[in-house]
Amino acid sequence: MKQQPLVDEKIKAFENLCRERGLALTIQRRIILENLSSRYDHPTADQIYEAVKDQIRGVSRTTVYRVLETFVRLGVVAKVSNPHAKARFEADTVRHHHLICLDCNSVADCHDGRLDGIEVPTENCDGFEVRDFSIAITGLCSSCRREKTL
Amino acid sequence: MKQQPLVDEKIKAFENLCRERGLALTIQRRIILENLSSRYDHPTADQIYEAVKDQIRGVSRTTVYRVLETFVRLGVVAKVSNPHAKARFEADTVRHHHLICLDCNSVADCHDGRLDGIEVPTENCDGFEVRDFSIAITGLCSSCRREKTL
DNA sequence: CTCCGTGCAAAAGGTTTGCACTGGT
DNA sequence: ACCAGTGCAAACCTTTTGCACGGAG
What we know:
The structure is a homodimer. By secondary structure, chain A is α+β, with helices and mostly antiparallel strands. Chain A has two domains: 4-80, Arc Repressor Mutant, subunit A; 95-149, 2-Layer Sandwich (Dna Ligase, domain 1), CATH 3.30.1490.190. Chain A contains six helices and five strands; from the N terminus they run ααααββββαβα. Chains A and B meet through strand 3 and strand 5 of A and strand 3 and strand 5 of B.
């Protein structure tokens, strides 16, 4: 689990954002953000639903989808690109990259300073205005690698 | 449109692959590959279906999905990661990167030599075995940018 | 001639939408 | 008290699957 302080910060920042914009700080939003902030994996909407349904009496899958969509729109969480159908989410908004396993489809984070300095062509590509970038590294995660050699 | 020679090469390579592996070179496979190889965008399975259904009498959506899956398995085309639900495909197998528009969700290619030299940490990340990588650059494409300033 | 590949229809997810109610501000 | 946010159910859309037929090797 991530350090509690990080989760608290995230929640606090979101509380402020809600106040600023007059958004309702509902139990659903709070617990979903709390859950997503405290995990390392990149859960799908459904996995988040499974995780929070015991904490929020009678929460619906629909709400999870809507809350996540709101978070994405606010820039509080990110939708992770991956080559599979399901959308995956993460609360880490610091620039980092993703290790995507070709075998088990898991998505792991990779914070590596060496990759931060990469210069993305800002002007060259047909007038495209660069906002951010992320590297998707595909390969085999350690556990799938282990299985292969067995 | 891409230069015709590129399409021809792609088809020829696929013909050889079929011969080698004893795969059937059906009209469906040929026309779908021809279509995907000749376009610059990153069409969804459905967009390809729309494009080829007039050329292949009575083709079914199912076939398009299955043919694309076959191509991906053979490494002839790639499934592009993007932060939206639908899978997108491309026939360009040379390493390159993607410009993803936050506004219109379009995916454009970016071949930039400066990005080819990037050293991805091969050993650091928890025993992950790196196979390949691709950079997803998010921002605004030129036409969406133009609209915004209007 | 033999199967692989296809078409059809139906199922299986994942995600979105309309509407009425409820809880946060 | 007002209205954004939620729950429910149903719709929607993409993708997958089972089965029988037909065409490529």
